[in-house]
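Following up on my earlier message about glutathione. Here are the inputs again, as you asked, copied directly from the submission form:
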Amino acid sequence: MITISAFQWVPEFAQGQVRDLRVRWALEEAGLPYEVRLLAYGDQDKPDYRALQPFGQVPIFEEDGKVLFESGAIVLHIGERSETLLPADPDARARAVQWLVSALNSIEPFIMQVALIDFMYPDEEWAKLRRPSAAAFVRKRLASLSSALGDKPFLDGDNFTAGDLVMAMVLRILDHTDIVRDDERLSAYIDRCTARPAFGRALQSQLNDFEASARTGT
Ligand SMILES: N[C@@H](CCC(=O)N[C@@H](CS)C(=O)NCC(=O)O)C(=O)O
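Thanks, got it. Here's what our run produced:
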């Protein structure tokens, strides 16, 4: 049985954003059942968890004694069992990996600069000074992404892949702002990706875990 890690509870702004959602979504797309190892506050810093995830982050993926960390690596690993996520055609597969890496490497770091300012440092003077240029850079990068998407439904054409899964998750990080949603093409793209039933099930399962923990006070 596959087990993934997730936080038992996070503040409301992070609910629906925690990175185990990428893995839950990939597992739902692949039709693979899984269990969740819920971490209470502080568990991520305990030696037994650090031995599995050196940075004390979620998610990890465990199966048959094998462990992986990094959501991108985990989605690719799950993709080996799903032709939706990683197409059988070698060229299409390489392009799916390309888009997944571009989401994590060319888009997410810049989106996270804005997200960190908004959620972690909103009242800091340096953050107020930095935010406009950080947001402007993201808009510039998104304009390039939007042109690359063009009129296609998904980044590689007609078919959703692991690249779209991770890209949509990365773009959603700024849903508390208009930065991504101002681009109608990208906004429709996020909606198209997240309208997939597998995303709905994944999101609900993450939210259910938070709700259960809030209800039981654990
Ligand atoms: N690059 C990592 C990032 C994982 C990550 O940032 N996880 C957050 C939750 S969304 C976390 O565990 N934060 C706690 C921490 O960094 O101490 C991945 O994609 O798996």
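One observation from looking it over: The longest helix spans residues 90-120. Hope that helps, and feel free to reply on this thread.
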